[in-house]
Amino acid sequence: MRAEIQTLVSEIETSLELLRQRMGWETARHRLEEFNARVEDPQLWDDPQ
């Protein structure tokens, strides 16, 4: 019984780590898309500040 619980805990921890990695990737990708859109705005370069 204890071994089964430990196995389940390990599987859950692995799943959570994969979710963390996945969410991090999506966030980074989304932020990159936003950054690219801002850089492509021709008015961005009108004001050097």
Summary tags:
single chain; 49 residues; 0% strand
Provide structural commentary.
About 80% of the residues lie in helices and about 0% in strands. The radius of gyration is 21 Å and the shape is rod-shaped. It is mostly helical and about 50 residues long.
SS element count, helices: 1
Helix content: over 70%
Strand % is: under 5%
Backbone CA Rg: 21 Å
Number of strands: 0
- State mean pLDDT (0 to 100 scale): 86
Overall geometric form = rod-shaped
SSE succession: H
Major sheet summary line: none
Model regions low in confidence, pLDDT < 50 over at least 5 residues:
none
The CA-CA distance between the termini, in Å, is: 64 Å
SS content category: mainly alpha
Quick structural summary:
With 49 residues, the chain is mainly α. The protein has one helix at residues 2-40.
